[in-house]
Amino acid sequence: MSALKINKEKAAFLITLALAVAFVVIGALKGTDLTYGVATSSTCTTTVTATVKAAISISCTNTVDLGNVTPGTPSSSSGDVTVTSNSLEGWKLYNYADNYMTKSGDPAQSIANTPSGTPAAPDPWTATSDFGLGFSLSGPINDAVWHNGEGLYNYASFTTTSDNAQLVNNYTTWSNQAENLTVLYVLNVASAQLTGTYQAKVSWFAVTHV
Question: Could you say which of 2.60.40, 3.10.350, 1.10.357, 2.40.50 is the CATH number of the domain covering 56-208?
């Protein structure tokens, strides 16, 4: 075989090989799998869930001063209670006093609470028979119960232990929004009540429905 024929065959082989390599390279650049083709998997789904828990907070006026109290003449002053919650079913509000109004330095002297009204059925204050510490509420969820329609307040007495904390908005449905309530505190004393400075601590707390 002549050298010329061998070179021609070699050149043809090299040209064929170069064309094949070029074809593969071009196919790869185009993202084409020339051997097996393209495969796509099925789709799977992940569901992400979470539960938002109920939260609630409360704030109230730290100090309410009823000033000088003359026996037989009720003295009053106001403070605020604000409850905020994200509970869809809302919340209920409770209160209690740690004790009767007690004389500073002489705990044996106190002013018992005698008002007949309760949070479920508050009634007008009677100066001649209602003595001790009482309260009324004013706000968007209570006006119909705590006001008698003539611009006068209805009042309730405080319980004096945490075990007997009283529900003060049990006449309404659950409130599901932030509420600011005005609390009107009132005190009356009998003529025999000893002079001096008296105090009691009133606690407020709220509970969500869920």
Answer: 2.60.40
- First-residue to last-residue Cα distance in the chain: 99
Domain boundaries, the chain: 56-208
C-beta of residue 183 within 8 angstroms of C-beta of residue 76 = no
CB neighbours (10 Å) of residue 5?
9
Per mean pLDDT, which range of 26-35, 70-79, 81-90, 148-157 is the poorest?
26-35
Q: What does the angle CA 129 – CA 130 – CA 136 come to, to the nearest 5 degrees?
A: 150
Residue 91 has pLDDT above 50, yes or no: yes
Q: Cβ(207)–Cβ(54) under 8 Å?
A: no
Q: What gap in Å lies between CA 184 and CA 164, rounded to an integer?
A: 21
